[in-house]
Amino acid sequence: MPKLKTKSGVKKRFKFTATGKVKHGAVGKRHRLISHNAKYIRQHRGTDLLAKQDVDHIKKWAPYGLK
C-alpha cells in the first residue's frame, strides 16, 4: 500500500498534544488587522483547543501525526 499524504494546510495550522487533543491558533489574525480593534487582537492571542467533533477530520488529514 502506498503511504498517505498529510494535507499541507494541516501541517501549518494545527499541533497535536500528548493526550491527542488538537491545538490551533486564533482565527482572524493573519492579515488585515488594521480593521480589527485592539480588544479583538488582544483577546485572540495564543492558541485554543479544537472541538472534539472536529478532531476526527484533522486526524484523517494527518494520518501519521504531526511533528
Automatic annotation (TrEMBL):
Domain of life: Bacteria
Key words of the record: Ribonucleoprotein, Ribosomal protein
GO molecular function, one term: structural constituent of ribosome
Any GO BP: translation
GO cellular component: cytosolic large ribosomal subunit
HAMAP family for the chain: Ribosomal_bL35
Similarity comment: family membership: Belongs to the bacterial ribosomal protein bL35 family.
Protein name stated in the entry: Large ribosomal subunit protein bL35
Gene source species: Alteriqipengyuania lutimaris
Organism lineage: Bacteria, Pseudomonadati, Pseudomonadota, Alphaproteobacteria, Sphingomonadales
